[in-house]
Amino acid sequence: MLSLGKTQPPVALAVIHGVFAGSGLVVMTLAVWHRFSGHAIWALGLFVLAALSGLTLALGFHFRGKPLPSGLVAGHAALALIAFIILFTTAFAL
Does the global pTM surpass 0.90? Predict the structure, then answer.
């Protein structure tokens, strides 16, 4: 079991996560670009913030072998989860 800040995930897992997340961000940007609906833009903005925090985690800590700050890991996950919930409720008009 991983302990936040002590055991890092494998580099391959972090790279795969980043590639899929980045691809999804590009696809979402292309989908939202023509519509500019309010909630979808909020979700996109939060996903961009989550991506920036993920890049900070990857480049600033993970690839340098430094412990990942628990607060930044939790913030990264929280931003992505909130953005996903906003996007999901917007897409399905819940």
Answer: no
